TrEMBL record:
Keyword Secreted set for record: no
Domain Enoyl reductase (ER) residues, every copy: 10-314
Keywords: NADP, Oxidoreductase
SMART domains assigned: PKS_ER
Superkingdom to which the source organism belongs: Bacteria
Protein's name according to its UniProt entry: Zinc-binding dehydrogenase
An example Gene Ontology molecular-function term: oxidoreductase activity
PANTHER family noted in UniProt: QUINONE OXIDOREDUCTASE PIG3-RELATED (PTHR48106), QUINONE OXIDOREDUCTASE-RELATED (PTHR48106:SF13)
Stretch forming the signal peptide: none
Organism encoding this protein: Lacticaseibacillus zeae subsp. silagei
Length: 320
């Protein structure tokens, strides 16, 4: 198979593209020929050596992709050869062939095309668990999303708006601000302006996937408000004083999607809920940026630069 791999941790230059042995499947596995592979911020953390990475020689990054089943384990009766499946929590995805345990395979409704499905898998299920498992906002709540024009940010904003929540956001450039406003967001602040002073205590919930912004996020929520901390795209957050939170009745909610995708049913129920937003037009997916898997380095650099908006997909080139 063809794969994007690395032997040491470091910047995007450690990435190499070449031929590696095909994965072997067990009785409960599917072999999936990937079409599109999703790039995520966690792939950057893994390449840098700062995040959990499945042992493999050489290392292969990536956990989500969409493709076609080309081989089926002897105990699998629920999938057929040629079926299209999505997966979001399967290691070694930066390759033309991926071993997908059957419980991790997600069926996609035929009305959703490949690019759209591949663009919303992991980020969409993340938005879903942040909104529906962690924050659990009510109609009319006021929320703010840092990095609202990013992949998770855009999907989360549209999901919450469809749920009747008032969504504001923060972003870095005027162009990204335009994108966020088109989603139906009420107000979008520019990160480098002095917007925050007027907004302290204003929100019921702040969604923070940026990390360094965590103290600001706690200032922005009112008493009894909560901050949903889910990532560090901007760097590690400083330590938070729990006694301070207690004194103001503010809560820190946090979690990893993988602790919510624990069975075939959990993946199916959550993806069905996510796909419904797409099928009924509540979530509109911005066209992804697509680069060949062979150009993985460029794709990592683009994501790290902060200049991309929406999803970056790697095309494995194994499809004719
Ligand atoms: N907990 C989980 O299970 C889980 C699952 C998936 C993803 N995540 C996390 O979710 C976050 C967003 O992921 P994504 O895939 O949506 O990435 P993304 O598309 O690259 O979006 C990240 C956003 O963060 C903002 N940002 C980057 N550097 C920043 C900085 N220094 N200061 C402030 N903002 C900065 C950028 O927005 P602006 O340029 O507009 O400010 C960017 O749009 C990441 O932290 C990721 O690790 C968590």
């Amino acid at each position: 198979m063809k794969a994007l791999f690395f032997k040491t941790f470091g910047d995007a230059n450690v990435l190499q593209y070449g031929t590696l042995p095909d994965p072997q499947i067990g009785p409960e596995d599917l072999l999936v020929q990937t079409h599109y592979i999703g790039l995520n911020f966690a792939d950057i953390y893994r390449r840098r050596g700062t995040y959990h990475l499945e042992p493999h020689t050489p290392f292969i990054d990536g956990y989500e992709g969409l493709g076609q089943i080309v081989a089926i384990g002897s105990d699998v009766t629920t999938f057929t050869l040629g079926e299209r499946v999505l997966f979001v929590d399967v290691p070694f995805a930066n390759a033309s062939l991926v071993r997908v345990p059957r419980d991790h395979a997600i069926r996609v409704p035929s009305a959703i095309d490949d690019k759209t499905a591949a663009s919303i898998g992991l980020q969409g299920l993340t938005a879903d668990f942040l909104a529906h498992d962690l924050a659990r906002n009510h109609v009319g709540d006021r929320v703010l999303i840092h990095g609202i024009s990013g992949g998770v940010g855009q999907l989360l904003a549209q999901m919450l708006i469809a749920d009747g929540v008032q969504v504001a956001g923060v972003t870095s450039t005027l162009a990204k601000r335009e994108i966020a406003l088109k989603l139906g967001t009420s107000r979008v602040f520019l990160r480098h302006s002095d917007w925050a002073e007027h907004e302290r205590g204003h929100f019921d919930t702040v969604f923070d996937g940026v990390g360094v912004t965590l103290p600001l996020s706690f200032d922005l929520v009112g008493h009894r408000g909560s901050v949903v901390f889910y990532g560090m795209a901007g760097g590690l957050p400083p330590k938070i004083d729990a006694v301070n939170l207690l004194n103001q009745s503010k809560s820190l909610l946090t979690g990893d999607l993988w602790d919510y995708l624990t069975s075939f049913e959990a993946r199916q129920t959550r993806s069905t809920r996510l796909f419904r937003y797409v099928l009924n037009g509540a979530i509109k997916v911005q066209p992804p940026t697509i680069l060949p898997l062979a150009d993985g380095r460029k794709a990592h650099e683009l994501l790290e630069s902060g200049k991309s908006t929406g999803k970056i997909l790697l095309e494995s080139g194994s499809f004719s």
